[in-house]
């Protein structure tokens, strides 16, 4: 880069401060958005890459054929884990539970922490870093426990935790054999402790039984690591039908085993017809496009502002060409100008991102930071600056360098190169297309969220609470229930295997009228006679469970009856896990899974000892704060070894919308920014038109035109440009948003008022932005206007 070019460019930019600041403001905002989104996207793609075995770890999943519909599950059987251990090419197989909350007690310290019960090869497969201990031995003793550094500190303070005892769920004392470094925030698996799977088998007889029973006992997770050099395709083909070849179970005959690579766990969680189709990656891609769009809008601003001033620089170009400068030298000069502006804008963008990151992290629930010491980050930023400078500066550079020196010196204009206003108008249309599309998208996302949030769920989630049912509470449940009701703390209380907002268990059944090759996988909720009163789910037909011993009755929801095609279902029998049940009642449908999907076919059973949660509804007239304080006392009375923990169903339900809420909030921010940047782009066009038509305006004023008529004349062009943008953006937005909504069975319809609002807002912003120049031109003294040329 020529130092003289830098000096000349800096002089020009300083001399034209308002133009320079306007350009820098637009570019810095665009680069800041692109940089912020770029850091977020990089963070989402960074998950689990800290593991050395990143490319060879897989989770085992099942595709289950449910009467032609392929359902996908992550839950698998221990029998499958043992079968996979015999497959050549698989180096490690680690079976685990579902990583849930447990109570850990050390001395008087009681904590509820999240952890997993894992096979001995788990820490060989996932090579998390140790503070103390090693992967080959820490899980060898069934009565051992591995803590993260933070968990160890919370339990034992700053002292050494190794060899100390932790009371696990008030059942057994486990010895601390290892300390892991805290699990990175960008790990798909998050936990505070690990317990050997052999402990789970020793402490719970049903787990040991599940290892030898059948492939249908799908209550566990399996992770595998392939040996180096082993082709995934070969292993996939070997294990796809492994359940079928080792059993004649009907459940296994309808199940295919597939593998999901670790690199896809975070971003690809959605399966349709047994195939990985997307998930959170859809939002990552969408915001990547938004970031690029906002940066393009900012670059268009630069182009419009630069080309609008081209006429004023015509004599400068003429003098330089006469003095011996060729076109290439002029292009380099003007690109240098663009590069200087972009570099300063990038520095300002870095400051903006640094200041905005804490708020963004809180909004997105992430731990993103600017990697100042990363060479790759600075390389990426340098590339972004160079591309932006080239994209934003190339059009003005080639335009200015093309001016005829004779015409430029003679008349001070470009001359002979046609009207460049058309290209600027096209760029403005592109800008507003992006902006209007963002506005429309933001409104549709918001309406879809509100539509689903207000959807009738089939149960009442208000004042409904959930707590884990530990061993002490289970043993003392009758006394706990009586005291809570007597103190009028709760209206109803029940035990359940699932919360109100999810169904943890799925299984297949046999029913009268099924065909030979027909299967149905449905939700299973194990509960007691108080369940429907507590949830406030009405029964459509039949009766409730008579008592806690009514273990041969089953209640289906409406969706299950419809799915099974049962006519007059009451009194008919079905088979589940080699037992016969009589249909006692039909419950109204309740949305317990995805709020965007129909009610899931579900059966309700009454079995003792199979529930893991307490559901209870606070009594009317009792404030939440008072109730929680009193509940804490009662729960501690019957479960002194466990801390009282709870959650409100309202809060759990709201979490289902976290991703869409984040999308909506960020869309609002970016759409407002886009429309502001697009309006700034009109400043260049307004300034250009006002200057080019100065003499025309003066003549029209002499002939009697009012200032309002002049304003209307000059603003009409901007109105037309925005209208054209609306006509282009609206059908395109409708097409893409309609396809997005098609992924939801419960969805809004796109109304015309959305497009009208977006268009009106765009027109309003455009006219507000350009009015300064048009009104100033319209009110200028007539004599000065006529003399201007």
UniProtKB/TrEMBL annotation:
Specify where it is mainly localized.
Answer: membrane
Query: Could you tell me which residue ranges the ABC3 transporter permease C-terminal domain spans?
Result: 289-392, 669-779
Question: Which terms are listed as keywords in the entry?
Answer: Cell membrane, Membrane, Transmembrane, Transmembrane helix
- The reply to whether Transport figures as a keyword in the UniProt entry is no
Q: Which domain of life is it from?
A: Bacteria
Q: Which residues cross the membrane?
A: 21-41, 283-305, 330-355, 375-393, 426-446, 668-690, 718-742, 754-775
Q: Where in the cell is it found?
A: Cell membrane
Q: Name one GO cellular component term.
A: plasma membrane
Give the record's membrane topology: Multi-pass membrane protein
* Stated name of the protein: ABC transporter permease
Domain (MacB-like periplasmic core): residue spans on this chain? 20-241, 476-633
What Gene Ontology molecular function terms does this protein carry? Answer: transmembrane transporter activity
Protein's UniProt keywords contain Acetylation: no
UniProt organism field:
Pararcticibacter amylolyticus
